[in-house]
Amino acid sequence: MENLVSQGMPLALFGIGIVFVFLCLLVLATRAMSILTGRFGPALGLAPENLADYPAPPAQVAAIIAAVTMHRQRMRARRATP
Amino acid sequence: MENLVSQGMPLALFGIGIVFVFLCLLVLATRAMSILTGRFGPALGLAPENLADYPAPPAQVAAIIAAVTMHRQRMRARRATP
Amino acid sequence: MENLVSQGMPLALFGIGIVFVFLCLLVLATRAMSILTGRFGPALGLAPENLADYPAPPAQVAAIIAAVTMHRQRMRARRATP
Amino acid sequence: MEQWRSLWQSTGLYRLDLPQTAMMLICLLLLYLAIRKKFEPLLLLPIAFGGLLANIPGVEIATGDGILRQLYEIGLATSIFPLLIFMGVGALTDFGPLLANPRTMILGAAAQVGIFATLLGALLLSDLGWFDFSLQQAAAIAIIGGADGPTSLYLASVLAPELLGAIAVAAYSYMALVPLIQPPIARALTSPRERAIRMSEQRHVRRIEKILFPLLLLLLTALLVPAAAPLLGMFCFGNLMRESGVVKRLSDTTQNSLVNIVTILLGLAVGSRLAADQFLVPSTLGILLLGLFAFATGTAAGVLMGKLMNRFSRNPINPLIGAAGVSAVPMAARTAHRLGEEADPENFLLMHAMGPNVAGVIGSAVAAGILIRLAA
Amino acid sequence: MEQWRSLWQSTGLYRLDLPQTAMMLICLLLLYLAIRKKFEPLLLLPIAFGGLLANIPGVEIATGDGILRQLYEIGLATSIFPLLIFMGVGALTDFGPLLANPRTMILGAAAQVGIFATLLGALLLSDLGWFDFSLQQAAAIAIIGGADGPTSLYLASVLAPELLGAIAVAAYSYMALVPLIQPPIARALTSPRERAIRMSEQRHVRRIEKILFPLLLLLLTALLVPAAAPLLGMFCFGNLMRESGVVKRLSDTTQNSLVNIVTILLGLAVGSRLAADQFLVPSTLGILLLGLFAFATGTAAGVLMGKLMNRFSRNPINPLIGAAGVSAVPMAARTAHRLGEEADPENFLLMHAMGPNVAGVIGSAVAAGILIRLAA
Amino acid sequence: MEQWRSLWQSTGLYRLDLPQTAMMLICLLLLYLAIRKKFEPLLLLPIAFGGLLANIPGVEIATGDGILRQLYEIGLATSIFPLLIFMGVGALTDFGPLLANPRTMILGAAAQVGIFATLLGALLLSDLGWFDFSLQQAAAIAIIGGADGPTSLYLASVLAPELLGAIAVAAYSYMALVPLIQPPIARALTSPRERAIRMSEQRHVRRIEKILFPLLLLLLTALLVPAAAPLLGMFCFGNLMRESGVVKRLSDTTQNSLVNIVTILLGLAVGSRLAADQFLVPSTLGILLLGLFAFATGTAAGVLMGKLMNRFSRNPINPLIGAAGVSAVPMAARTAHRLGEEADPENFLLMHAMGPNVAGVIGSAVAAGILIRLAA
Ligand code: NA
Ligand code: NA
Ligand code: NA
Fold it and tell me: How far apart are CA E44 and CA A32, in angstroms?
């Protein structure tokens, strides 16, 4: 009866294993990258982080800022009414 | 001589007939819809016709960018209040 | 040894020749066009070079929406002046 | 020496023949009308330019592996481009005026008489032996009277692709000529007093009505004329995106980028059918004549139905708005408005004419479905 | 007489059968949910409308040469549409929160447990004889637990196109239902005190990190799970366009016109798989059940991993952000945030939840690659 | 056990070979140049990323049913993408400076000498036995000297698709390197006094001239070099949309969404030709060398023709603007301007250089037509 399940079990363990290995390696690689760029980036001319480097922010943001504002007003209102 | 015309005549009458039937039924259905939504719409919560019904632009980034903005402002605020 | 080059030589001469002939003819044709439009353009109603020549953004609905607005304002005006 | 001769023979100068020259002049005329006279430029400009390219001798553009031929195969032979344009038209259409006064839809039905009269006309010309149109071809020509570009292209692509070029040129040209074709007919059939009739103000239409209408329309189509469902389905989909309010991103893109991109590609693909050997045939003349007849009879039928409805209606109906029933959005509605203003400078018919105008789009799509069903 | 009968027989009224009627009602329900309840409307509205069209009897829309069928063949059978959407998602994704706190990626891994548990679940149902899912089908169903639309569509198009309609409906519906599915599970597995944990503020992320991250991710994919490279490659490409700052034109178009156009066409193409004869089969029920199971187990695994990490971490970790690891961007992150706010009104988890949230996208793409490799 | 081994063997780590590793490094270098040095990033970024994807072992991306392969077949093998881009270039081009001073077109002709010199160069290398280029291949390589991306891609797709990757990389790289390649050549061939020559102000160009010019250009192409009509036809179509003023919707979409979408897809499709087995071949080295030679000889020919014209012209002509005749819009015009400013800080050559610059686009499209006719 358990033919397919027993066939799938190693596959499933194996699959979730790889997902973990992959993301753990990605954590390590990302950390290494952050450290290396932090240390050697300036020497390579990569560091001078001025905003001019960044492209103009996407136009869609308007609504979002509204949402943030709203959220903040809520928080403030909540705090104001003890 | 009138072979094609006599073949086409019923087709034409028939065609314009269906167009009329279709649009007359559409008139009736539209009227019924307008009356029904006018009568039962409010009960179904469909009536309150305010612009708030229309959602803010639902771009996926919304929450993210909003949060970033907020986060930065917090950071600045924290730095500003030693 | 020079098999391909000797094959290609007339082709190359010929090619650059046509490019020159083409662009020289284009110079002449362009000059002629500029002169003719300058001389006969006004007579053909082509000259009055004002920006009005360029049409307003031609979105299909544009006119309609504009008309609705106009209609409503008129109706309001009519009601306001009994 | 040999090479020089072969090169000379490869030039357009050597190869150009009279029909191609004539077609190029026709295309230049269409460009002139599109640019200078603003004759439906959004489609006539790409079509006419495509036609220019299609008549350049000695190079594959509208034939073989040429780009216009490929665009034709990708988008027109498959009917994909006209259907996507129709989706865009749906997203650009406001059914408000129609919903405010649904009975004006009847005017949009009446004006489709032009389609079926033209069908008989085309068959008559065949019977007389002047032309040799098959039933399919007659149906594809008749739909010109629908005064709706994508519907005409769709039907032609399904029933008579060999006539597509002439049908497209006739359809878009007469749509642009509506301000010239309709006034004499409308004036001849109405008295100045009728043209001066003012109509009562339209009621406010609720959002829920606008959301439900495309679904209602689709349902009725599915039940009665399934053959019209590809056209009206895409149209209703576009309109639902517009009115639902929850997919503004998609609706905006449909109304702009998407419809513009498809218009460009569609225009070029249609232009590929303006090659001399396909366009300079006797049937093109017949198509142009029948197209004019179609617009004229449609206009007349709309106006007469307007008079009839005015007689039996409690609220007055200005018969001029019947002329807008042919569709040709929004040109025909504007023409009706201008005629009304002419008779009474304070008469404002535009909004009332928009109802039959968009109903005419529905009516001709239904007619297209019937013709596909019966003629295919 | 004969003609009348043939016409009557051509109407939808005559031909409509019960399953098609049922599917139309289901599609209308989905439209209601998309428009009124804002259930992932960007995809559910086109899918549901496509489903309506696909169930109109007596006309080729989702079959033969119909437009939905053609869109399906062009964009879904080839996997092109889901991959282009994934490129768009990449261009819309900000990896900042993830880069600020890379270890939260582990939570994005844990939540993929749902995928593999569901794989076993589907196989079990087959072993029990309740359903008859093959290994490929089980894998395509399991990926619903990835809570990522384009990944689900991609895998279904590769492994089990016959289930595509049901998988799409399940995936997008449950993504929309995340605010209902996740809270009870997350609450059951955490104490109020855990939910109130505040997390320390995130560090600033430099631009160079954001540029290098997609390249790093692609490299790792290429080395370890090449089968995931089509998905993650397009994703990283979109993200690199966004972050590089030198192709703003392309990035803007990708985030808007391109992704919108493809969304519309993809939605209609998916809708073509909602024809009654394909959708109203027992397996659809199984898919809906398994999909729910997948979301639930993924959520639970994410939360439990959050608790585990909190125990062994120097900086406190709120286990709620583990629930965001299923992806369902940004719904799951918002849900985690709201649950945190519920326990402590000043707790602001959104940014912290975005890390696992986008890591979940990566995690399920990796899982999809593995499933393709092992099940194909 | 067996499964573990098969999995290990499926990883990129196991399968990656040296050539693929080398290609990945080359692609990363191109990305660095595109992002950090802003080397034609709009095309080099997608091309280089596509190249990365194409060299991932063990998965079909640029082969079989992979997405890059499909994009290649859809848009490059058919020449559709380069032609659409060229339409976009037309819509982005202002012929005003050229119309103000038509004789500067001669400079755009002279700079095409580079193309034909390179043709002979490539054939010479074959005769010497160093490389083995056929006539078709030599022609496709020579057009790199046209310094125009879409023209190069179009010709390569028609005459030598097997060299497309290397030709694209060479064309876009050298276009980006124009500010380094041209100055030493231009300086060596001119005296400081010549470089300081100021040119008289340009006259105002009327709208009607701008509208008629693309039609004139198309007509001349049709009559003399029909083989260039696909390229120049699409170019003129784009320009007419721009200048006609009646299809602003279409012109805007062409200049933005359409050209951006096609650029992305084209870049990825070109990237698919950067697979190691196609790119890491001796001929690539030859292409890179010949491409440099083409740019250098084109620049020299343009400058020398500038000197010649200056001698026989009533109005002074600064020979530097001849260098802009290679096209590489607008980089070469800017480079000429900067060299003029260097010699005389008040010298403003930019507008004068734009004439030969866009004439160079026309010139190389004509040359492409001739090469297709003679080499195909
Ligand atoms: Na009509
Ligand atoms: Na996921
Ligand atoms: Na050039």
Answer: 41
